[in-house]
Amino acid sequence: MVKLKKLILQPKKFKFKKVRKGKLKKYIYNSKINFGFIGLKAVESCFITSKQIESARQAISRKIKKKGGKIWIKIFPNTPITKKPNEVRMGKGKGNLSHWAAKVRGGSILFEIGGVQKKIAIKAFRTGGAKLPVKTVICD
What we know:
The protein has helices at 50-63, 118-129; strands spanning 38-42, 46-49, 70-73, 79-83, 96-104, 109-114, 136-139. It is α+β, with helices and mostly antiparallel strands. The chain has a domain at 38-84 and 95-139: CATH 3.90.1170.10.
């Protein structure tokens, strides 16, 4: 039995362990498909964690596995999210690093597919979009 190593997206090097998250911008209008022929676009802004990106990638790749297509991930989680432990009083500094997340603006392309039929790509993006915490639209 072969044990598969789970891919968790995170930066290899980073300057600061704890940063401020900042504000989410509302919408981006000039997002274009660069690599594939069909893409999955976010409608609203949010933080998407590395686990959510990975689960969406796995769902998309399962749908196109025998067809020989290629998937491009257009977002990368480079924002560290901290969390304090349960039942800890206020103050005493910022919490420890919990996970990594990507800031996603509404209207930005999340995933792209190339090398498969359009019908299969739409089906794959529907299942992958269900794994994400943001409303998505399939765009050509």
